[in-house]
Structures are given as C-alpha cells and as structure tokens.
Amino acid sequence: RVTFKRRARVEYGDAVYVSGSCEALGDGDPARAVRMRHGGGNVWSATVEGVHGDTRYRYLVQTDDHASGGRGEQGRGKGGPAAPPRWDTEYTLPLTPAGPQHG
C-alpha cells in the first residue's frame, strides 16, 4: 500500500490523478489513472494497493469526468471533446513506508 500526495491548484471541474507503470496505476493509460482526493489546501492524495518499489509514476490533471468521455475544457457544459491530460514530471517510486510526497 502506497499513499501518493501532491500539492496542486486546479481549475473547477478538474482533478489530480496518478498514473504509473503497474496495473494498480493503470499501466500509464490516463483513462485508467487513479483519481486523487482533494483534502483542502490544494493537497491531493490517494492510497493504492499493489504498487511496487520499482514503479515509475507521474501525476496528471484532467477533467473530473474524463473516463466517461466528459465535456472537456473547451466544451465544458456543451458536450465538446475532452481536453487532453496535462502530465507532470515522472518519478520512480522511493522505497519508503510513507510513500511519495511532492509539492
């Protein structure tokens, strides 16, 4: 079990996700990325089972309804195409019990 934490400011309707090189993190596919929870103060977190020490991962911001072919940034509320995800820096999972934290 690994807890990911990321400080990020996002637009209304967007959310922070974590994606990585293992099945638990969607095998790098943004449509299968794990949505993180907003905990206030621009801090997002997610606890994920099945993540190993050699996992490469990165954070992304995308519309909160991306998996259902959501409205997207330009067409929000108008049925337009979904905006592409905005990827962040890629990391290799550190081998610590607390898990990764990025600010």
From TrEMBL:
Superkingdom to which the source organism belongs: Eukaryota
Location of the region described as Disordered in the Swiss-Prot/TrEMBL record: 62-103
InterPro entries: Carb-bd-like_fold, CBM20, Ig-like_fold
Biased composition (Basic and acidic residues): 62-76
A Pfam family it matches: CBM_20
Molecular function terms from GO: starch binding
Residue ranges occupied by any CBM20 domain in the UniProt entry: 1-83
Designated name of the protein: CBM20 domain-containing protein
